[in-house]
Every structure is written in C-alpha cells, then in structure tokens.
Amino acid sequence: MNNHVWFDAIGWAGAAALLVAYAMVSSKKLEGDSNSYQYLNIIGSLLLAINTIFYRAYPSSFVNMIWIGIAVFSIAARKRVASR
User: Fold this and answer.
1) Over 70: is that where the pLDDT of 1 sits?
2) Distance CA 2, CA 18 (A)
3) Would you call 77 exposed, middle or buried from its count of C-beta atoms within 10 A (0-12, 13-18, 19+)?
4) Where exactly are the structural domains of the chain?
5) Closest to 21 measured CA to CA, from 6, 9, 36
6) Is the pTM of this model over 0.85?
7) SS3 sequence, the chain?
8) In the structure, what pLDDT confidence band is assigned to residue 66 with cuts at 50, 70 and 90?
9) Is residue 51 within 8 Å of 77, Cβ to Cβ?
10) pLDDT digits (tens, 9 = 90+) for 20-62
C-alpha cells in the first residue's frame, strides 16, 4: 500500500472526528466547552494536519494547528477554573 492511501485514510478519519464533534454540539449531545468536544477537535485537527502537511497544503495545516491550539487552551482554562 502506498503512502497516499495511508495519508488519505488519516485525513478522512480527521474529517470524520471534526464532523462528529460538530454534529454532537449541534444536536446538544455535547457542550461546546466540554473536554470531549475539545478532544475530538484535537484528534480531528491533528489527523487533518498530518494529511495536509503530507500534501503540502500549508494554509490548511496552519488552520488545523490553530484549531488544536484553541482546543488545548480551552481544556487548560477549564482545568484552571475547576481547580479553584
């Protein structure tokens, strides 16, 4: 199996994770600031970033890295509030 197939599968899995996260928030099964939602965003964006770096789609890679940063920041902020 060539690399393209693996990186395509990684990209599709990432897209699926982000779509599941969005659908869960939209259907009110998850809260937008919940850790579950944020972890789905991290996983989905990481997988898409891997895919877009492989294909040298750097603007998309940049957006996905920012998406990961936002999710990590949200989780950290939630932990700070919970520890008070």
Assistant:
1) no
2) 25
3) exposed
4) 3-82
5) 36
6) yes
7) CCHHHHHHHHHHHHHHHHHHHHHHHHCCCCCCCCHHHHHHHHHHHHHHHHHHHHCCCHHHHHHHHHHHHHHHHHHHHHHHHHCC
8) very high
9) no
10) 999 999 999 999 989 999 999 999 999 999 999 999 999 999 9
